[in-house]
Every structure is written in structure tokens, then in C-alpha cells.
Design brief:
It is flat, with a radius of gyration of 18 Å. It is of the alpha+beta class. The chain is 63% helix and 22% strand. Strands 1-2 form a two-stranded antiparallel ribbon. The mean pLDDT is 93.
Length: 51
């Protein structure tokens, strides 16, 4: 469901269906797993950028 924010009409708020919320939970878990898997590489890359 889409609803305009009454305080800022440029903003649209979304209300997820139960199925969409389930998909979002699953997708978030997959992304978290991926970030944890590549954490050492991310740290290495970021440490080089701060030198």
C-alpha cells in the first residue's frame, strides 16, 4: 500500500504485504551472510583506502 506522507508530500510511505515482508526478511539474511563472508576482504580494502 502506498500513502503520501502528510508532513512531506514528496515522500511516499509503503506498507508491505505479509509475503513481501517475508521476502524482505529472507533477502536481508542473505545479504548479512554475504557481508559476513566477505568481511575480511572489505576490511583489507578499506584499510588500504585510509593509508
Amino acid at each position: 500500500m502506498r500513502k503520501f506522507d502528510p508532513a512531506d508530500r514528496r515522500r511516499v510511505r509503503l506498507k508491505l504485504t505479509g509475503l513481501a515482508a517475508d521476502h524482505l526478511v529472507e533477502l536481508s539474511a542473505v545479504h548479512l551472510d554475504e557481508l559476513l563472508r566477505i568481511e575480511p576482504l572489505l576490511k583489507q580494502v578499506l584499510s588500504r583506502r585510509s593509508e
